[in-house]
Amino acid sequence: MRHTITWTADGAEMPALDFALIERWLEAVAASHGRILGDLGYIFCDDEKILAVNRQFLQHDYYTDIITFDYSRGKLVSGDMFISLDTVASNAAGLGADEGRELLRVIVHGVLHLCGINDKGPGEREVMEANEDAALALYTDMLSNN
Predict the structure, then answer these.
(1) Where are the domains of the chain?
(2) Total Cβ atoms within 10 A of residue 53
(3) Which of 125, 90, 105, 114 is nearest to 35 (CA)?
(4) Would you put residue 40 in left (φ > 0), alpha (ψ -120 to 50) or beta?
(5) What is the pTM of this model?
């Protein structure tokens, strides 16, 4: 199954990432959840853009790190994800976390949503965080074997 992952920047500078490694990682994460990676679109933006998207499509009037639009069908995960690099940076600073690692967490967070993992209901945030941690551990393993 061929898939396409597009990486674009809108009002923000494109982050310096190993996109080929990240694509293999996202494919492995999807497979670990019994899913097949379809077409994904990542749009890196600033806070103003994500606020506009949040207001227009979700009627939410606040900043967030990621908004995921799910186009998945069955086991094929597909979607568009807007990521605010401003919010990722401020969240990393607030957590005392590495900004690059926080960005990877947000990138995989979108795919985990597409795999059916939620984070809004009771106990769901802990499940999402456990899945993010497992995915980041996989990324670290892939990076060391790269």
Answers:
(1) 5-144
(2) 20
(3) 114
(4) beta
(5) 0.95
